[in-house]
Write a structure and sequence with these properties.
With 500 residues, this protein is of the alpha+beta class. It folds into 4 domains: 31-186, Immunoglobulin-like; 195-273, Zincin-like; 292-415, Orthogonal Bundle (Neutral Protease, domain 2); 421-499, Sandwich (Immunoglobulin-like). It has 9 helices and 28 strands. A 7-stranded mixed sheet has the order 5-4-8-2-1-11-13, with no helix packed on it. Strands 15-16-17-19-18 form a 5-stranded mixed sheet, covered by helices on one side. Strands 9-10-14-12 form a 4-stranded antiparallel sheet, with no helix packed on it. Helix 3 crosses helix 4, helix 4 (300-318) crosses helix 6 (355-368) and helix 6 packs across helix 7 (370-384). The chain is globular and about 85 Å long.
Amino acid sequence: MLSLLPLVLPLALSAAPLAPDARGAVAPDRTFDMERLHLDVVLHPETRSVSGTATWAVRRLSPGPLVLNQVGLVFEEVTVAGELAIWRVEGDTVVVEVPGNGGDVALRYRATPRDGLHFREVGPDGYAEVWSQGEGEDNRYWFPGWDAPNDRFLYTGSVSAPPGWKTITNSGHDMVGYLVMLAAGPYEVHGDPMNEVWAAPGTSPEGVSRVRERVPGMMAHFGARTGVPYPWGSYRQVFVQRFLYSGMENTSATIEDRWLVSGPSTGGTRRLGTESVVAHELAHQWYGDLLTSRTWRELWLNEGFATFFADDWQETLEGPEFAAAAALGRFRSSLAQEPLVGRFHNGVENRNVYQKGASVLQMLRVMLSEETFWSGIRTYTTRHQRGLVETDDLRRAMEEVSGQELGWFFQQWTELATVPKLTVSHRWDGQLRVSVTQAVDADHPAYTLPIEVEAVRGEERVSQTAWLTGGRVELVLPLAGAPDFVAFDPRAGLLAAVKQ
């Protein structure tokens, strides 16, 4: 998902410092494995409502009833294996007694959703349509499901809508609950299933071309980088009115805001913005959909990767200057004293999963080398495809290909709330001496940092590296004379607040 606002999901992790997580605070226990979901839904735009049947195939894991998320659903019948079941609504859940080891649980229901399923009308909008938005936990407003991302299942579905409307749902793929989608309206469909655009009637050919033309190249690039070709068989972009975000990466069928495709391009900034969103959402088809963060706490493995990969694609078009500017921009956006992955020792939810998450990948890329980093990415992606991932899965893949123990790296960059503060100074006394001092106090623990300095004098260029493990390190660079300039962190591999 690409949002114009910071994303804060409901992790319920606002415990006092050093308080361990409460049971269920990060992810709910699973009594059943959710194996398959089939939805038959009917849209009623005239009443802004939906009706249908959700059939779950479940397999028992531990004693207890089946608990599904729901908000405001009216249940008309619940059966297990075709027989009427014992069930009850408890708060924002429906609880079903399932005998034995599981089976097919069918829930017939109706709802007038106040969230999750959004209705657009001819009056305030250009045309009537309906579309869904599931992340974080909003699909519960239009069908009974499992909203936590700690269970994958095969989804199939069908959607009925008024005559003249086209409907789409991402049937036939395995996914987690928030990635189930539907959209319905009087769309025009452009392209072919591997690169298809669903848009409003009369959308300009230029707009359609703008969002389609780079997709094949992006798919090839991401496939080569990850070691996994585009995995879903079809890719559709559905452009809707007044979407909540720029885009949402539902498996095989991204929903995006209409501004990305409507009307002529308004110049380079708009063009770059459109392409960046398209690349971000497509990258999510690998990171977020093929590999999904096991809990909301690990969301940077979705959003940080998509941000990083969108910039990596753009680098192929714009060159290394773009890459440098993008990396520095991400660093500047990551200086707030916030952890990337909340843990008991800082007692807060995760923050800045987009920019800081991408910054962590940038630092790994520079520290480990291009070849090693991308080998680690391919190992991580191929090993965990169609699975649920945590930060330790990425760490282990990178350790395996590099031979380095990286627990220290992931702990300080994903778990700590601080950002190192560095002061860099240099002097010439026949040799170039560069001093790097790290602020270490009660609020700023000592980070372990790979330090790189480069100096240039005329045609002469020298560099030096060292490890900063405490308060200060000095690097000595041999030059024939005083330097023309000195560059600290020339490859943009270090997130820090630097005074130079």
